[in-house]
Task: inverse folding
């Protein structure tokens, strides 16, 4: 089935590319980017930053830290002789976050992709986020302009976000997506407000090469499919979006459960107000087949945002549960709750300043398990061009 789909896609693509017509204009190039600096800190029961599981996770314990997030995107666009549009982009991460001794072997390239589009829809080829990510809507959708992105921002860099259970969600779209692994995606045209899309990823550990860069049995998923459907329409002054996505595939490690996740969400905007919410179910994806009991991982999120001129405000909430199958917590759930209050002031000319205040509470179902509770803040500045 996979070979048939890929062969058909190649034939259709070739016929589109070779169709005759007037000679196309020369492609146009563009360079854009952003640099962000953030300072933040927290007071918490544990003494580590960085989202790793367990009290022994590496990170500063001084209670505060600085970070940067910088990216440059080089793109080109044009039309074929047949009039079909295309665009290509390379995204370069300026912050590799690796030790100096490792940097020669690390790639600073984040995404590289080609897109062809027309009245028939669009096809994306390369290292790009999958449909299962793009069609997933959560509470963060309402607060994307406020602070550092609310529950989908970088708050977890300043607090230990997964102490109780490594499968607890620390972001609303944590649906075991394929990330920027090399893939093919197709998007239908939007008809009557409806659109659909599908992504195929041979190996979630492959980033631009024919074989995985991760060792065998390293937890990658194989032959994964991301499928998304949404409805987007404007009713008077009210904008409505309802969306759903699934992600399924095989596990490289045959002793673990195959991948199957799904999520639904909605977003409504009126004037300067926005509200959004979503639910994600990862089931027992990637867990040992020998596990006895309910170990499903789920989350739901909600957010509300308000914008007036250069000011953007938002409040978002994320709740996650994972079934505990061992020890004194067997039959119960490990749980996590995150609240983020954010604000942004747009300075103009591509510059903005922002701040977040966040609160985290995580509880292990096991007696004497690793819990964490803390409150923190971040403040930063960003420029875009």
Result:
């Amino acid at each position: 089935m996979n070979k048939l789909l890929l062969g058909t896609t190649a034939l259709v693509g070739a016929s589109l590319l070779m169709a005759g017509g007037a000679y196309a204009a020369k492609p146009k190039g563009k360079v854009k980017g952003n640099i962000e600096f953030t300072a933040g800190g927290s007071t918490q029961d544990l003494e580590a930053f960085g989202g790793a599981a367990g009290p022994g996770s590496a990170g500063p314990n001084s209670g505060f830290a600085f970070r940067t997030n910088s990216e440059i995107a080089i793109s080109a666009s044009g039309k074929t002789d047949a009039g079909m549009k295309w665009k290509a982009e390379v995204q370069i991460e300026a912050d590799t976050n690796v030790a100096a001794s490792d940097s020669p072997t690390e790639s600073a390239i984040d995404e590289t992709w080609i897109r062809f589009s027309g009245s028939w829809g669009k096809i994306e080829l390369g290292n790009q986020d999958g449909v299962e990510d793009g069609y997933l809507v959560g509470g963060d959708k309402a607060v994307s302009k406020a602070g550092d992105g609310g529950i989908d921002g970088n708050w977890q860099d300043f607090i230990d976000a997964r102490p109780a259970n490594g499968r607890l969600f620390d972001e609303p779209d944590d649906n075991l997506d394929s990330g920027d692994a090399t893939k093919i995606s197709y998007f239908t045209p939007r008809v009557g407000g409806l659109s659909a899309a599908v992504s195929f990823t041979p190996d979630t550990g492959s980033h631009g090469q024919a074989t995985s860069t991760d060792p065998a049995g390293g937890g990658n998923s194989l032959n994964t499919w991301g499928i998304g459907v949404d409805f987007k329409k404007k009713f008077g002054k009210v904008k409505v979006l309802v969306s759903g996505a699934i992600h399924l595939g095989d596990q490289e490690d045959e002793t673990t459960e195959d991948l199957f996740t799904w999520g639904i969400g909605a977003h409504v905007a009126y004037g300067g107000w926005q509200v959004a919410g979503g639910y994600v179910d990862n089931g027992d994806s990637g867990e040992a087949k020998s596990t006895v009991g309910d170990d499903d991982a789920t989350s739901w999120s909600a957010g509300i945002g308000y914008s007036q001129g250069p000011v953007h405000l938002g409040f978002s909430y994320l709740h996650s549960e994972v079934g505990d199958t061992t020890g004194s917590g067997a039959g119960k759930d490990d749980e996590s709750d995150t609240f983020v209050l954010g604000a942004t002031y747009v300075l103009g000319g591509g510059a903005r300043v922002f701040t977040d205040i966040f609160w985290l509470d995580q509880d292990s179902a096991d007696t004497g398990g690793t819990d964490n509770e803390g409150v923190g803040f971040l403040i930063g500045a960003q420029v875009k061009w």
